[in-house]
Predict the 3D structure of the following.
Amino acid sequence: MVAAPSFNVLAGRACASISSLLANIGRKYVFSPYGGDAADGHGTGFKIIGIPATFSVHTRDGSLPQGHFDVQIEGVPPGEYLYTNVVSLDAFLAIVERMAGPRSHWP
């Protein structure tokens, strides 16, 4: 899959950890920005086409170990957090993979 054109906008302002995460997501999914998290470069928010959730991912201003993220996944419509935790890039990608499938497999 090819990421939406907005990938370049998000990744262009992001720190190395967030850029890597977005590149990995963009290899498999089409996504678009969501929310206004990207201004400082240490966080971003996005929606993935076909997954009824929003993803907010932060490095806590770079204070987390490289490749680790504070993840918050909220349902659509907003109001219910489906998942919150600090995870590695590989763990986050596995969560997204599960969420691309049936809801019964969601975290």
